[in-house]
């Protein structure tokens, strides 16, 4: 404590123990290296991407506690040190704080919840009774994974489509074999399925580098092709999300298999051609 933390402590022979020689107003509980300090500064900048979301205040308080333990030992200016570091997420999801708090409490206490839910494309909301298992942030949007009691199956609910949350007195026990990793294992993003699709996509040399720089799915395999192209292989439970993802690459991506996905892309391409016909 004296040598490493520089606290005013000495051995008192009269009491046969160590004691403080002067009042100690703060106790330095954190020792950091230069690299750890930089990581802490980056974390502070990263907080900005959570502004307006339910976790921003909690993250900010946690950062202030960590930084507070260093104020008498290290002097720095985040604005000066991190001018070259920034974060930007496109399409951050909008979440009602009251809905988020109600559902997070129900997940922790394992309370059944009732709410109104509007599926994509539906004009009206429909009532749901759900055992809430888990809250997940996927692709910048919050989702609730829960067991729909009326449909007798696990379902994924986007929080911006949930309203009028009511906590029931009924409680439940979350299945021991449930895990979010297992639930999302065969999904590209959010929507999994019961299928077993072996997806093969070929990319031109113009975008091959961008594709190879990221991990898109746990099952991915990448094979370099002649002339700089790239072949990406995935194993998924459903095709909806991968279809939208492939279309985002435009003519730089070609679906090789399965035939069902290739047919869907062909159909969408024909509709696009019709829409943009001069």
Q: Would you give an account of this structure?
A:
The protein is of the alpha+beta class. Strand 1 (9-12) and strand 2 (17-20) form a beta hairpin. It has helices at 34-46, 56-68, 78-81, 97-109, 180-183, 205-212, 240-247, 259-275; strands spanning 9-12, 17-20, 111-117, 126-138, 141-148, 153-158, 162-171, 197-203, 221-224, 230-236, 253-257. The chain is built from 8 helices and 11 strands. It folds into 3 domains: 9-81, no CATH class; 97-178, SH3 type barrels; 197-275, Alpha-Beta Plaits. Strands 6-5-4-3-7 form a 5-stranded antiparallel sheet, with helices on one face. Helices cover 29% and strands 27% of the residues. The model is unreliable at 74-79 (pLDDT under 50). The radius of gyration is 26 Å and the shape is extended.
Largest sheet: 5 strands, antiparallel
Q: What is CATH's topology name of the largest domain?
A: SH3 type barrels
CATH class of the largest domain: Mainly Beta
Number of helices: 8
Please state roughly what percent of the residues sit in beta strands, choosing from under 5%, 5-15%, 15-25%, 25-35%, 35-45% or over 45%: 25-35%
Computed Rg: 26 Å
> SSE order, as H and E?
EEHHHHEEEEEHEHEEHEH
* Strand order, sheet with most strands: 6-5-4-3-7
Number of domains: 3
Q: What is the typical, i.e. mean, pLDDT? A: 83
Q: Could you give the distance between the termini?
A: 77 Å
Class based on secondary structure composition and strand pairing? alpha+beta
Helix content: 25-40%
The gross shape turns out to be extended
